[in-house]
Design brief:
Blueprint: H1 2-15, E1 19-23, H2 29-36, E2 42-47, H3 50-61, E3 72-76, E4 90-95, H4 99-112, E5 118-123, H5 128-137, E6 141-150, E7 153-161, H6 165-168, E8 170-171, H7 184-203, H8 209-217
Parallel strand pairs: 1-2, 1-4, 2-3, 4-5
Antiparallel strand pairs: 5-7, 6-7, 6-8
Helix pairs in contact: 4-5, 7-8
The structure holds S-adenosylmethionine.
Length: 222
């Protein structure tokens, strides 16, 4: 969570978002730390499960000094159904949900707000290749990417924008350009991904797996 918080702090410095959306917020810890640190004018917590949103709202209201009411909103909603004010700059955070859910939500938001000023911080639990493949196909621009190790698990944190590569960032790749061959956590994470795709290739049910495996096998040799 700290790693995502740091990316949001960086994002706010460089792009000054009017609204930050902690989508799929569940317990809300990430958004709470953002509200508490006054990192943005307003943070919107979003979860599709009513009792989760209600419980979070109760918790926030109990501590008004830590979480001043004017700095947040809590919405019960599917993150795909959000309404973004086109006059404002938005940062949408999607963390702790599957790669498929991330792609579904980003795709729908882009479709319903094609001209919206909406950037994303994405930290899916799996299927990073699929998420990256979607972002590359849709010509998203990379603002930052990193690998985070936490409790023997690894995550990628992608900060991306649907903007113009010339002016705002660099080109996204299918497997990432952040690999550091000397970093033990990167070694472990890559070994795990390669083992996963080896199993998929052996299973013989996915035509794409061999190509994906080869791309990951060459991550350290670039
Ligand atoms: C595992 S929690 C992730 C919590 C937090 N974001 C994190 O990274 O620790 C997943 C949460 O996402 C919510 N969720 C899943 N799909 C959603 C969607 N399409 N829209 C809104 N919330 C969603 C679930 O209700 C659940 O509370």
């Amino acid at each position: 969570m700290q790693a995502i918080f740091d990316v949001i702090a960086f994002a706010q410095q460089v792009r000054c978002y009017d609204r930050v959306w902690d989508c799929c917020c569940d317990h809300g810890y990430l958004g709470m730390s953002i509200v508490n640190a006054a990192l943005c004018e307003k943070l919107i917590f979003v979860d599709q499960v009513p009792h989760i949103a209600q419980q979070l709202e109760r918790q926030l209201l109990e501590q008004p000094l830590l979480y001043p009411a004017e700095r947040y909103e809590v919405l019960t909603s599917d993150a795909s159904d959000l309404d973004f004010n086109s006059e404002q700059r938005h940062l949408v955070i999607l963390a702790g949900v599957s790669g498929k859910t991330v792609v579904d939500i980003v795709r729908t938001i882009r479709k319903t707000h094609p001209l919206g000023n909406i950037d994303f911080i994405l930290c899916p639990t799996n299927a990073l290749f699929d998420v990256r493949e979607y972002l590359v196909a849709k010509e998203f621009v990379l603002l930052s990417e990193s690998i985070v190790a936490e409790k023997s698990r690894h995550y990628e944190v992608l900060y991306v924008s649907p903007g113009d590569v010339e002016s705002t960032g660099s080109q996204l790749t299918h497997t990432g350009a952040m690999w550091d061959e000397k970093n033990i956590e990167h070694q472990r994470y890559l070994a795990r991904i390669i083992a996963h795709y080896q199993r998929v290739v052996e299973g013989g049910n996915d035509d794409r797996a061999e190509g994906i495996l080869q791309r990951y096998q060459s991550c350290f040799s670039r």
